[in-house]
Specification:
The chain contains 23 helices and 14 strands. By secondary structure, it is α/β, with parallel strands linked by helices. The structure holds adenosine-5'-triphosphate.
Length: 619
């Protein structure tokens, strides 16, 4: 068995080797070096940048596959389209060579009137994330470069101040660049004169976020000599459209993994599961997963509507489970702070509303009733159109993603699941699927190429959640669910918004001075008016059957072995975690299985979530 696995692994390795570079449109053949263990030095990266990578909180020692391929091409000045899985390190794949190129021209005496590099991303959250990454690289490498971020909520005076100088690198959204052009703080002629590198990150999302017109206006100003890079996690008609719009005869890099098998889009180190349950039963199912410790923390739960996320939060609170909510209604400072706290491990459960697709669908159906239109207009005004928590955000140490509601498309699923299993860490997803959502589950399965030969694309029934476990909590859950009324949900939502608006200004002022002071405002405060009944906090022993006890014991053991104690400043995983301790790989509610469909036979390569210094083939 072990030998067979090794042979398979070797074959995969060889075939990946051959396929790693696919230059579909570029006539030149790109030869990959034989030694695929090429280091950053061997890729030609500037020692200052390598030192900056070493200085990171989690030191980065070796390039990921997409970085190995993309960095040399970008350094050579090629236009590149890079498609690689979520969490595969695409950001550094373009940032490192971009910085290196700017470092080499930084001393040039030519006075520029506009930034040399534009990095455009679809959401405010991503803008902040990329800006932080680029700023930390600049600081650690002591490079004489300046980066700024522009967001749509900045007044024209702040935009002007930020662009004074000008900075070398601008990180922003397309609509904010359009705004800067329209208020005259960016000038068409200076862009045309100064722009050397244009990056469109999360390119598969830029058009769906409604930026097409803004991008068209900008690309008309991009000079022919400008190097253009396009990064995406999935391929789509939108990516093709953008490719045609901005790139000139680019190198197209994709990282398929196994010859003859449909491209993998979900990282191999993420195990995907589903649970069949009626809509009304979803609360009790999620309660069983969390309360009985049947999934590993931290947990990111997706809903499709803001009200649903508050209903879930209030419901869980009654059982002593504290969570925070994240949605487009909240002020941007609060959203960024919630993400920071969650990433730092200040709370374990985050309920994020991913309603972009629902909104898009609604928009497509718009026009039927004036009344409906009015109310939708009202709703849209309140929500931040640049909110995109699902897309591209680098969540740290999320071990489980739960789809409380199923996404409306396969691409939406890929992006949600991609919030776990980042870089070399392991993760799992559990989708709660109602009969109405079976169709989308099938669509997702066929998109992923769910078949016996392609382990990483299989979505299996979740083995750790048994019927008994659910039934043991049903009475309490149904009784409690009744107390979470529509009015309670509405009040909690309004209260949360009020709190966060008040917090938002405080946050802004405070974090400018104390960027690391995360404890100041916790976002997982209890919103229920009545305090939770004490007897609901504990699940009495007699309610649990032996199988569930065993399963939850194993999940806890695994967490302890992985060093995932979710303390505010996690020191990283313990190194001796063994693969066979992962209950998803070794546990069966129905006894040992032979086939792999039950989800027990999938063997991710990662025994732990250590991701430094360790060379892994698949991301
Ligand atoms: N060479 C590396 N070694 C170890 N970790 C890395 C390496 N490169 C990047 N990472 C880490 O991997 C994580 C994911 O990287 P990144 O956010 O760039 O992924 P991505 O491919 O852009 O994902 P998505 O498509 O979801 O946006 C980050 O925490 C990053 O610091």
């Amino acid at each position: 068995m072990v030998k067979a696995d090794k042979t398979k692994e070797k074959k995969e390795k060889e075939s990946k080797h051959k396929q790693e570079i696919q230059s579909n449109e570029e006539p030149d053949v790109v030869e990959e070096e034989e030694d695929e263990a090429r280091s950053f030095e061997e890729l030609g990266l500037d020692p200052r940048l390598i030192r900056a990578l070493n200085k990171k909180e989690i030191s980065i020692a070796e390039p990921t596959p997409i970085q190995r391929v993309a960095i040399p091409l970008i350094l050579q000045g090629k236009d590149v389209v890079a498609r690689a899985k979520t969490g595969s390190g695409k950001t550094l794949a373009y940032l490192l060579p971009l910085l290196q190129k700017l470092l080499s021209t930084a001393d040039s005496s030519r006075k520029k009137l506009s930034p040399s590099a534009f990095i455009l991303v679809p959401s405010g959250e991503l803008c902040q994330q990329v800006y932080k990454e680029v700023s930390s690289l600049i600081d650690s490498s002591k490079a004489q470069l300046k980066a700024v971020q522009l967001t749509s909520n900045m007044p024209a005076s702040d935009l002007r101040n930020a662009l004074a100088g000008p900075p070398d690198i601008l990180v922003s959204t397309p609509s904010c660049v359009a705004k800067s052009l329209s208020v005259g703080v960016l000038k068409s002629e200076s862009i045309n004169d100064s722009l050397e590198i244009l990056v469109l990150d999360e390119a598969d999302l830029l058009l769906s976020f409604g930026y097409e017109e803004d991008l068209k206006a900008l690309t008309a100003l991009v000079p022919r000599r400008c190097q253009c890079l396009l990064m995406s996690a999935t391929s789509s008609a939108d990516v093709d459209k953008l490719k045609k719009l901005v790139l000139h005869n680019p190198y197209v890099l994709t990282l398929p993994e196994v010859e003859g098998v449909k491209d993998e889009v979900i990282p191999k180190n993420v195990q995907q599961f589903w649970v069949s349950c009626g809509d009304r039963d979803k609360l009790v199912h999620v309660l069983a997963l969390l309360k009985l410790d049947l999934v590993q923390k931290k947990v990111l739960i997706f809903t499709n509507a803001i009200d649903m996320s508050f209903r879930l939060k209030l419901f869980l609170e009654k059982f002593g489970i504290k969570s925070a909510v994240l949605n487009a209604e909240l002020p941007q400072n609060s959203r960024l702070h919630i993400l920071e706290e969650f990433n730092a491990g200040l709370f374990d459960y985050l309920i994020a509303t991913d309603d972009r697709e629902t909104k898009e669908k609604e928009k497509a159906n718009e026009g039927s009733l004036t009344e409906t239109r009015k109310s939708k207009k009202h709703a849209k005004q309140k929500l931040d159109s640049e909110f995109g928590v699902v897309r591209g955000i680098d969540f740290k140490n999320v071990h489980t993603v739960i789809n409380y509601d199923m996404p409306l498309s396969a691409a939406g699923y890929v992006h949600r699941i991609g919030r776990t299993g980042r870089a070399y860490s392991t993760g799992a997803s559990v989708s709660l699927v109602s009969p109405d959502e079976m169709e989308i589950l099938e669509e997702i399965k066929s998109f992923l190429g769910d078949d016996e030969n392609n382990e990483s694309n299989v979505i299996s029934p979740y083995p750790l959640l048994t019927k008994n476990a659910v039934e043991s909590l049903r009475y309490r859950a149904e009784d409690t669910a009744k107390s979470v009324t529509k009015i309670a949900v509405r009040e909690a939502r309004a209260q949360d918004l009020r709190n966060e608006i008040l917090n938002s200004e405080k946050l802004k002022a405070h974090f400018e001075v104390n960027p690391r002071d995360l404890d100041l405002l916790k976002h997982d405060k209890v919103l229920s008016k009545k305090p939770p009944a004490p007897h609901l906090s504990d699940v009495p022993d007699y309610l649990l059957d032996a199988t569930t006890k065993e399963a939850s014991k194993m999940v806890k053991l695994t967490r302890a072995a992985m060093g995932n104690n979710n303390s505010a400043r996690r020191q990283g995983p313990k190194r001796n975690f063994r693969k066979n301790k992962d209950p998803l790989k070794s546990f069966s509610a129905e006894g040992p299985r032979r086939g792999r469909k039950g989800g027990m036979k999938r063997e991710g390569k990662d025994g732990d979530d250590t991701h430094k210094h360790k060379k892994k083939k698949n991301l």
